[in-house]
Amino acid sequence: MARQKKAALRPWHGIVAAAAVLFILFADLVGRQGLPFFLQTPANQINSATGGLLYPVDSKPALKGLSVHFIDVGQGDSAFIWCGGESMMIDGGPNDSNGKAEQYVASYGIKTLKYIVPTHPDEDHTGGLNAVVQQLSVQNAIMTDATTNTQTFERLVTSIKQKHINVLRAKAGNRYTLGGATFTIEGPVRGYSDTNDMSIVLKLQYQNRSFLFTGDAPTTAEADMLATGENLSADVLKVGHHGSKTATSSAFLKAVSPRYGVISVGKGNTYGLPNQSVLDRLKAAGVQLFRTDVQGTIVMQTDGQTITVQTEKAA
């Protein structure tokens, strides 16, 4: 019996297989928003235009009601907020987050932000905002007079000027609208020499539900806000200064009386954050806590009555 010849492996078979593997790896990287911002943005646009060629378009929670996204940017802060077709961003994470905040917003097809709020000039809050300003259309920047001579902050200020973005000076009591929501500047209530004390603190209200964002405001600034007699109570507290013991005093926590707390912090950071004393304080107050170093990006949505929470990772 004649021996059958094995089919020869054609050269293009290997090329096609290699290309398929590379495409799968690339699509996975795009889906995890892992490209540098100058590559991630066009990749997201291609994915949206093709109805999810690279990753499922419904892989993120749909924007509805009031959507507050605490983005996992590592050791830093960044929150994306959407309501009624209007969007804003509070802080943008550090330089080494590689534009993740901008990429996250762009993955939703958002091209315009009504506001950006650099709470204070520190790099772990403002580093990623330069990519936001460069890649998206930003209408207003709410800022204090606090400055620093770091290249990161100077680059952001230069970009804001070059893009002709309207600068609104943060003043306690000022109120702004975002879709059907409103937010009020609660701090700083006076001038300070320390940039953390100068953190913009704002309370976001949507019908019967509210969120309090505190930047890195320490106990000194907290005490001054309490002394004004303003109503600081909120359903959700963005815990101050990444859970540092310099913030979230017992008096401040009692006044806010949150149901939920969110700590934005990097996994395995060298600062020992969040501090155990703060964690104990939050637990004793009955606050249900979420952490970006443990659960990744945290999305909270409300219809004005109830709040739902979705996390990127299981605790």
From TrEMBL:
SMART domains found in the cross-reference section: Lactamase_B (SM00849)
Record domain Metallo-beta-lactamase: where: 75-267
Matches recorded under CDD domains: ComA-like_MBL-fold (cd07731)
Residues annotated as transmembrane: none
Any Pfam family the entry gives: Lactamase_B
Protein name: Metallo-beta-lactamase domain-containing protein
Organism of this sequence: Ethanoligenens harbinense (strain DSM 18485 / JCM 12961 / CGMCC 1.5033 / YUAN-3)
Lineage: Bacteria, Bacillati, Bacillota, Clostridia, Eubacteriales
